[in-house]
UniProtKB/TrEMBL annotation:
Cofactor dependency: pyridoxal 5'-phosphate
Pfam family, one: PALP
Claim: Transmembrane helix is one of the keywords in the record: no
CDD domains attached to this UniProt entry: CBS_like
Keywords, comma-separated and alphabetical: CBS domain, Pyridoxal phosphate
Originating organism: Mucilaginibacter jinjuensis
Name the UniProt record assigns to this protein: Pyridoxal-phosphate dependent enzyme
Top-level taxon of origin: Bacteria
Domain CBS per the UniProt entry, residue ranges: 339-394
Keyword Chaperone recorded: no
Amino acid sequence: MWYNNILETIGNTPMVKLNKITKDIPATVLAKIETTNPGNSIKDRMALKMIEDAERDGRLKPGGTIIEGTSGNTGMGLAIAAVIKGYKCIFTSTDKQSKEKFDALRAFGAEVIVCPTNVDPEDARSYYSVSSRLEREVPNSWKPNQYDNLSNSAAHYEQTGPEIWEQTEGKITHLVAGVGTGGTISGTAKYLKEKNPNIKVLGIDTYGSVFKKYKETGIFDKDEIYPYITEGIGEDFLPQNVDFSLIDHFEKVTDKDAALMTREVALREGIFVGNSTGSAVAGVLQMKDMFKEGDVVVIIFPDHGTRYLGKMYNEDWLRERGFLKDEKLTARDIIKKKETSEIVTIDSEKTVLEAINTIKTLNISQIPVTQQGMVIGKITESDILDALLENGALKSAPVKTITTTPFPFVDLNTSIDKISSMINRENIAVLVEDDHGKIEIITQYDIINAMAG
C-alpha cells in the first residue's frame, strides 16, 4: 500500500506509555506522539484542514499566497501543503523562536519575516499586525489566522479526539495539552467530553501568559503579560479557538522547568521532543496529586526536538539563562585554576620589533593588541613571521599594521566544551572578563591544566 502524496500521511499518530519520568504517578500516563506527522508536529492536522476549508468556500484561490503569523510548526504544516497544492507562503514570526524553525520553513520555499517579541499584538511591528498588513497588500492572498479560525479546533474534533478515544479504548480520564492557539486542546476536549463528560481537561500555561487568571477570575489582566522563553504555549490575548468552558484547569509551568524537562524526556524516555512537551510533562508532575490508580492520563506531545537544538538542547544556552548548574568546568573555573599572572598586551602604536622582543623575553606565542586600553586585535608569532618574510622593513612599522582579528570574548559561564571548540589554528585563545572587570586570556594549555587539576 502507498499514499498518493505526503498529506495523506497526516494523523493516526502513535500512543506511547511513559515509564521512568512518571514512575511516582499512580496513573497510567500515555504520550500522543505527534512528531510522526510529515512536518513533525500536530499542526499539520489543522494546517491542512484550514486550507481545505478555505479552498471549499473560495477564500483560497488557485495560485494564491498563504500569509500567516506562526512560531514555526503551523508554518511547516501550511508550507508542506502549499508545496503539494501549488501555493506560495509568507510567514511572520517572533525573534524568540529558534533559528532551526525558520530554516525549516525556508527549506519548503516559504518567505519568513522575523518581528520583535516584546510588543503588543496591536503594535504595527508585531507578527500579528505585519501578517495582517501583508494580507491587505499582497494580491490573491489569504491569511488562515490559526488563532481565530475555527477550522483549527475542528481538525482536532474530527481527528485527534477520535484517535485518542480509540487508542485508549475509551478509558482516558485526563487530557493534558499546552494551550497556545487553543485549537488542539479545545477540539480534542470537545470530542472526548461528548464521549464521556467526566474526562478532565488540563491546560498547560506559562508565566507571562493570560490564560490561567482569565479562566479562574474572568479578568483579562494585562499585568500578567511579560516576555517568556517557552515556545508554543501561552498568549497575551484570547484566541477564539480557546474554549475555556472545555478546559477544567490551567497549570502554569516556569521557563526553566519546561526547558529542563524537555531534555529529561529525551534522556529518560528516548523521545526527542520540543519545548511545549517539556512544559506539559513538567505540568503533569506538578499536578501528580490529581491522579489516582486506574486513571489514564494522555499528554499530547506536539513537536520534535530538532527545532530546539540551539536552545533547550544546548547547554551553553541553558547556562546563559541560569537554567543549568552542573559539574562541567566553565571559563570562571579555568581562570581560577590558572597560575596568577598579568595578561600581557601591546599597544597598537608600538613597533613590530618591540612585539618580537616581548614574545622572545616572555616566551609566549601571541599578544592581544590594545588601543587606549581596549583590546582591538591580536598578533601571533606566525603573523609576524609571515609579515617579515613579505617585507623585512616592517620591523619598524607599528604593530597595528599587522594586527589581525581579536581573540573572541566569552562569558564567565561558558562551558569548557564551547571554549575548546572555539580554539583552533586560526584562533589560539579566547578572552574573558573576570568578576572585577580584569581581562584574562585562556589558551589550550590553560584548558588542559584546569582539567588535570
